[in-house]
Amino acid sequence: MPLTREERKLLHQKSKHPTFGINEPDAREGNDGDISFRQVENSGTVQYVKRNGDWLPMSSSGNMPSSRSIQSSSSTSGGVTDHSDLSSLGVDDHPQYLLIDGTRAMNNVLTIGSDADGADRTVTWGHSTLKTIMGIDDSSDAFVINTDDAFDATLANNSFSIDASHNVIIAGGVTSGSSGYTVGSTVITDDSIVMTPSANDTLTISSSTNGASTIQTVDAAGSDAHITIQADGNVYISSNTSVYLHDGSQNVMLFDTANVKFKMMDDADTGDYFEISTAQHGATTITTIDDDATAANLTFDIDGNIDFKQTSGTTRYTFNLDSTPELDVTGNFTIDGSGTINIDSASTLTLNGASAVNIQEGGTNVINIDTNKDIFFHAYAQSLFDNYYVNIKATERLLTIGNADFIQNYSLLAKHSVSSAYNTSFGT
C-alpha cells in the first residue's frame, strides 16, 4: 500500500529518530509522526508510524501484521481526527479482541509485559474506598496485591505478597471459614489446630469458653505421643493462679503461683500430699500430710552424704550415710532442747573428748574426766602428792559404801602396798 503525501512527510521528519522494541507498540506510546521498529511474532521486524493516535504498520521483513481499517464518515482526505466520527464502532467483527462488557471469554494465554526487568506489571481495580493494585512489583521482585493504587515500598506492608523464594507475607490477620483451612495434614478451624502426621496419630491444640485451652497428643499404636519443648534459651510458663500436671485421671502436681507453693498429691488420694512453700525472706517450709492418719513420713534416700552449708559456702553439718553413719560438725556444736533429751543406745554409749569430758548441771561441772584419766566430782581440784582415780570434795560430799548415816565426819581411806598383806586404817 503506497504512502500518502502526509505519511511520507511524517516519515521524512522522524527518519532520524526511530525507536526500537518488542511486540506491537501501544497506542498510549509516542506521538503522531513517531516511527518505531518492532520485533513482532510471525511478522519479523515491522516498521510502524503513528498517525491519528494509532500505530500503522508500514513494512515488514516477514508477514505484515493485520491492521484495523479505519473508515471515516467525512469525505475529506485529511482523515478522521475525532473519535465520534468513526463509523461501525458497535459492529463486533474482530473476534481477536476482548470486549469491555466481558461478553467474550478469553480462550488463550494473556501475557502482561515482556520477560524483562525494569518495570512493574500491574492491573488496577478502581474503587472509591478499596482501590486495589495487583501485579509484579519489580523493585521487590514479588507478586503483590495491595488495597491501594500503588505498591508499598516495604514488602511486608502490602496486603498480600509472594516473593521469589515462595514465601507468603500477609500484612493483616487470616480469618477461617466455618470449615477452616487445610494445609497438607493440618486443619485449622476457628477453635482448633489438628495436625495428623500419620493415620490416627494427632496433635490437637484447641480452645473453648473463657479461653480455656488444651494441647493433646494421641499415638494410635501405643503411648509414645510425647511433647517436647526445646528452646535455645529460657522457657516461661506464666499463670496468675496455678499450673497443674495431670496423670490422665486427676491432678497429681500443683505449682501454686499465687501462694508460691509446690505440691505433689498421691494419685490414689489427693488429700495425701507433700508440699514445699516459700514465704518472705526466703523462709521455706516442707510439709507432709496424711488426711486419714499420721503416716506421712518423710524419707531421704541419698546416694552419698547430706551437707548443710552457709551461704558463704562453709559446710557446717555433714551426715555421712555409710554403714557407720556419722554426723560431722565444723565449729562448736550444741544440742539445746526445751525439754528432756534422751540418748538411747542399744549397745555401748561412748563419750570421747580430745581434752576432757565434762558432764554439767546448771552450767557447773558435776563429773570431769581429765587427760590423765582422773575423775573429779563436783569440781574437785585438790592437788596431793599422788593422783587419785576417784576424788570427792569431802567437805561437802560423801562416798557411801553400804549403809551410811549421811554424817560428813566419816571417811574411808584405803591404801595398797607391795606386801604380802594389806594395811588398812579407819578414822574419824
* Percent range for β-strand residues: 25-35%
- Overall geometry comes to rod-shaped
Sheet having the most strands: 5 strands, antiparallel
Number of folding domains?
A: 5
Tell me the Rg in angstroms: 54 Å
Order of helices and strands: HEEEEEEEEEEEEEEEEEEEEEEEEEE
Cross-sheet strand order for the largest sheet: 5-6-7-8-9
Q: How much helicity do the residues have? A: under 10%
DSSP strand tally: 26
The end-to-end span amounts to: 171 Å
Would you tell me the structural class of the helices and strands?
A: mainly beta
Name the poorly predicted regions: 68-77
- Overall mean pLDDT stands at 81
Number of helices: 1
Explain this structure.
By secondary structure, the protein is mostly beta strands. The protein folds into five domains: 5-85, no CATH class; 121-170, no CATH class; 238-295; 300-338, no CATH class; 357-428, no CATH class. It contains one helix and 26 strands. The protein has one helix spanning 5-14; strands at 19-22, 35-40, 44-51, 54-60, 121-125, 132-137, 142-146, 160-163, 168-170, 181-183, 186-188, 192-198, 201-207, 213-218, 242-246, 251-256, 261-265, 273-278, 284-289, 306-309, 315-320, 326-329, 357-361, 364-369, 375-377, 390-391. It has a five-stranded antiparallel beta sheet, with no helix packed on it. It has a five-stranded antiparallel beta sheet with strand order 10-11-12-13-14, with no helix packed on it. Strand 5 and strand 6 form a beta hairpin. The longest helix is centred in the N-terminal third of the chain and has 10 residues, at 5-14. Residues 68-77 have low confidence and may be disordered.
